[in-house]
Amino acid sequence: MAKSERGRKRKPPPEPEHTLLATVKSVTVSYYVRNHGHGVSDEAITDVLCDIVAITPNMPKHLGDEVICSLMCSREYNRVDDPDEKGWPRIGKGHTVPERPFLLNMRLGKDGGLFSAYLPEAAYWAVQTDLKSGRLKFIEASFTKPNHGYSDLTSINFSEVSPEGP
Q1: Rounded distance between C-alpha atoms, residue 156 and residue 127, angstroms
Q2: Is the per-residue pLDDT at 101 higher than 60?
Q3: Which of 22, 82, 98, 118 has the most CB atoms within 10 Å of its CB?
């Protein structure tokens, strides 16, 4: 009886990171504030409408598609007895939630795409101001290989000039 060879299955190499380059078309800002049991919270949202001008690995069906980059910042104000607050409703100083940025996900589909991130307060307002003024013209987003149109966002880069290209 011949001994059968058992080969080890090799793990496929990791998928290369996907990258898209988009040009900014318009910027829309909204603001939301809400009372809740323990105080007040607010959220600022900047939606940046863009056109995809390059994408790697090559996905020609998405070239020219619109994509929205949604940037968010939120704060919470707890109801506390703040001695510096002279008027009612004596709400404490706001603190940013979260205090560090975090990236959400990427969606690419027939009707365009969307990716989003929460930014610390100072970074959010600085980037929002530069986007509204037209100073930042390009957004480069990196993400994992999409599965049924969805993937994890791994980085976002805002720039005045086009990067070397994805």
Answers
A1: 12
A2: yes
A3: 22
